[in-house]
Amino acid sequence: MVLCYASIAHVVVSINVELGIQFAYAHIAEFLKTGLFFFCIYIVTLATIKFSVLLMYYRIFKVRPFKLAVYIVGSIVSIWTIVAFFMTLFEYTPISDFWSIDLTRTPHCVNRL
Prior knowledge:
The protein is built from three helices and two strands. Helix 1 packs antiparallel against helix 2 (25-60) and helix 2 (25-60) packs antiparallel against helix 3. The protein has 113 residues and is mainly alpha-helical. It has one domain (2-109). The chain is 68% helix and 4% strand. Strands 1-2 form a two-stranded antiparallel sheet. 1% of the residues are buried. The two termini are 31 Å apart. It has helices spanning 2-16, 25-60, 64-89; strands at 92-93, 108-109.
């Protein structure tokens, strides 16, 4: 819930600074830096929601095969979270290419499927 409020605050601050109306170069870099932060937070938030549902199922169903299924799905969600977090964080090499507005060189990006 706190992460949702932080995301809403990010949008409100962006509107108050008038990032949607005039893009000054100093504000673009700051906006993209916070955007990268919220992209990573979004992945962690998705994992938290998935784990909360899995824990609910774990407490409701006391059958051993179902608990095993929860462990398997939980490990898949854990692996997905770690991979997606680092793929998002290191999408550009170096990371500063994500918010760099230098048009003289091309950023090194990860190829996505």
